[in-house]
């Protein structure tokens, strides 16, 4: 990419937000257009607080490295890159984090012409309308490329002809090097599990919706977590919970899963007496296994000795985690379980 005369630029800076999992030709085309229109381009890489999964396989540093690999030396000086974490159920938090990231990159923007560049491809692009203070530059896609399809081809280890076409050569080389790492092997195993799981339900006459329960147990400044024993999310921390059984009420299912996964021995009247709240979490893409709606229950015991717990069933470990430690665990939490817990903690 060659830098053009700054006198022709419409903007002092353009903001480009994306997940870039991985960066593909469509992303690079938008970036090239942004560089032609602005003195500087601020790339905000999303989902930077996620553990490594088939949906979010690459870290912030890895994605920054891939993007930088396709830039000329001159353009690297004009492209500023920063991380932005996700907030699944609180758009206000996410907007503030984006604003903070832009302020950290550009400083005071008073009197400067700032724009937001992107392509409104589907419902997930609604974020483009969340920043009225920035002029929107809506660009048409020149290539019909899906990062989801790139990941599927990559982890299924199919012929790489599509991947080779869809990503720039330096990114392709980076992905080839990544394929021999242990992290790739675990991602491929997770992908195979999810693909088999979806295949088992493919014969259903209508799209399947799963119903689950999760227990948020807060006791004396600690939250009860389990570490997942199996795919998906093997090794990640999670809330005790699982699928409801036929003929089972939601609250009863939650108490059953809580006992099965943690060995918590508190009497049922004590647990029911500590039940303070319940909320439905239904983000359409909260689970890679398919459409999954969970009903989360908050059990709150303000003081007392922490009961003994022990991982069992689908958990290889259960433990009480201090709330200040939990606050730093977003990047090792399964699916949206950090956000679910965060929601309830904000109400205590």
UniProtKB/TrEMBL annotation:
<dbReference type="InterPro" id="IPR000086">
    <property type="entry name" value="NUDIX_hydrolase_dom"/>
</dbReference>
<dbReference type="GO" id="GO:0000309">
    <property type="term" value="F:nicotinamide-nucleotide adenylyltransferase activity"/>
</dbReference>
<comment type="similarity">
    <text>Belongs to the Nudix hydrolase family.</text>
</comment>
<dbReference type="Pfam" id="PF00293">
    <property type="entry name" value="NUDIX"/>
</dbReference>
<dbReference type="GO" id="GO:0016787">
    <property type="term" value="F:hydrolase activity"/>
</dbReference>
<feature type="domain" description="Nudix hydrolase">
    <location>
        <begin position="208"/>
        <end position="348"/>
    </location>
</feature>
<keyword id="KW-0808">Transferase</keyword>
<keyword id="KW-0378">Hydrolase</keyword>
<dbReference type="InterPro" id="IPR020084">
    <property type="entry name" value="NUDIX_hydrolase_CS"/>
</dbReference>
<dbReference type="InterPro" id="IPR020476">
    <property type="entry name" value="Nudix_hydrolase"/>
</dbReference>
<keyword id="KW-0548">Nucleotidyltransferase</keyword>
<dbReference type="InterPro" id="IPR014729">
    <property type="entry name" value="Rossmann-like_a/b/a_fold"/>
</dbReference>
<dbReference type="InterPro" id="IPR015797">
    <property type="entry name" value="NUDIX_hydrolase-like_dom_sf"/>
</dbReference>
<dbReference type="Pfam" id="PF01467">
    <property type="entry name" value="CTP_transf_like"/>
</dbReference>
<dbReference type="InterPro" id="IPR004821">
    <property type="entry name" value="Cyt_trans-like"/>
</dbReference>
<protein>
    <submittedName>
        <fullName>Bifunctional nicotinamide-nucleotide adenylyltransferase/Nudix hydroxylase</fullName>
        <ecNumber>2.7.7.1</ecNumber>
        <ecNumber>3.6.1.-</ecNumber>
    </submittedName>
</protein>
């Amino acid at each position: 990419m060659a830098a053009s005369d700054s006198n022709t630029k419409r903007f002092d800076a353009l903001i480009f937000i994306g997940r870039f999992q991985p960066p593909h030709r469509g992303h690079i085309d938008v970036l090239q257009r942004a560089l032609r229109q602005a003195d500087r381009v601020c790339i905000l890489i999303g989902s930077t607080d996620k553990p490594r999964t088939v949906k979010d396989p690459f870290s912030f540093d890895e994605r920054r490295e891939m993007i930088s690999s396709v830039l000329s030396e001159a353009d690297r000086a004009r492209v500023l890159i920063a991380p932005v974490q996700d907030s699944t159920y609180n758009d206000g938090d996410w907007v503030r984090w984006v604003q903070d990231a832009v302020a950290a990159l550009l400083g005071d923007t008073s009197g400067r012409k700032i724009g937001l560049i992107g392509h409104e491809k589907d419902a997930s692009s609604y974020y483009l309308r969340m920043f009225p203070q920035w002029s929107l530059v809506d660009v048409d896609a020149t290539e019909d490329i899906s990062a989801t399809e790139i990941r599927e081809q990559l982890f299924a280890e199919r012929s790489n002809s599509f991947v080779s076409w869809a990503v720039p050569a330096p990114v392709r080389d980076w992905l080839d090097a990544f394929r021999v790492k242990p992290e790739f092997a675990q991602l491929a195993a997770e992908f195979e599990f999810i693909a088999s799981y979806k295949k088992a339900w493919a014969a259903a006459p209508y799209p399947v919706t799963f119903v689950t329960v999760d227990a948020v147990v807060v006791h004396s400044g600690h939250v009860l977590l389990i570490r997942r024993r199996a795919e998906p999310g093997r090794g990640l921390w999670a809330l005790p919970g699982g699928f409801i059984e036929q003929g089972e009420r939601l609250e009863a299912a939650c108490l059953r899963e809580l006992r099965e996964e943690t060995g918590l021995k508190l009497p049922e009247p004590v647990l029911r007496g500590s039940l303070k709240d319940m909320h439905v979490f239904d983000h359409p893409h909260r689970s890679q296994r398919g459409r999954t709606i969970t009903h989360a229950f908050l059990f709150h015991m303000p003081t007392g000795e922490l009961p003994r717990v022990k991982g069992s069933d689908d958990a290889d470990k259960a433990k009480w985690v201090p709330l200040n430690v939990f606050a730093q665990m977003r990047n090792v939490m399964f699916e949206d379980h950090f956000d679910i817990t965060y929601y309830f903690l904000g109400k205590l």
